[in-house]
Fold:
Amino acid sequence: MVKNILVVEKILSANDRIAAENREIFNAAGVKAFNFMASPGAGKTSLIEQTIMRLLPSMKLAVIDGDIATNIDADRAQAAGAYAVQINTGGECHLDAVMINSALKQMNLRRIDAIIIENVGNLVCPASFQLGSHKSVLVASVPEGDDKPYKYPTMYRGVDALVINKIDLLPYVPFDMDYFRKGVEILNPDLVAFPLSCKTGEGLESWIEWLSDIIKR
Ligand SMILES: Nc1nc2c(ncn2[C@@H]2O[C@H](COP(=O)(O)OP(=O)(O)OP(=O)(O)O)[C@@H](O)[C@H]2O)c(=O)[nH]1
Ligand SMILES: [Mg+2]
Structure:
């Protein structure tokens, strides 16, 4: 048991070293990187599509898409106008810094303003692996339920921004926004939150403003 814990610590510190290297690559290229995390189906790719469509042509985005199998999400990002690369993790439930490092070595970062990394859909494992991104974004969604901050505290504690997607479904599913927000507040009191709908477009403006401000910094 004790041995297992030591191994995990070693893996994580090795990961952190590569994550720092990734950050240097981003900085040297003048690229801002964002790590999008969420449970499966929360709307990461939908948010990426909406973001690309709103930021083009003034900003050039690249997407690194992490998925267990298939190129579906990278194809969607590319169709929306981004330069997209797919990482198939082959069963791993998260992206790690080494995977991002290998992707970066195959990418031409010249003329890219920002990279959005879509992590594997999972509220547990991605929270433990730094990738070297400048900001982490959690995409929650209304149909997942209002208890998720209470049940997945590590994820909610570690992120820089929270998107609350699918607000168009609020009239149809039980979701107590005050209860949800209270759970978030306990874990991450100053977390900036963007309730929005990728389907109707409601709320997307503030999100785009926050993202563009960071990209321009
Ligand atoms: N009603 C509604 N549906 C949405 C919204 N955003 C996304 N969806 C739908 O939710 C489903 C999942 O969306 P995706 O963007 O593929 O979610 P994802 O998080 O990228 O999913 P994985 O990559 O498989 O983890 C799709 O059917 C979307 O059309 C929204 O704001 N409202
Ligand atoms: Mg997706």
User: Anything to note?
Assistant: Residues 30 and 47 are 23 Å apart (CA to CA).
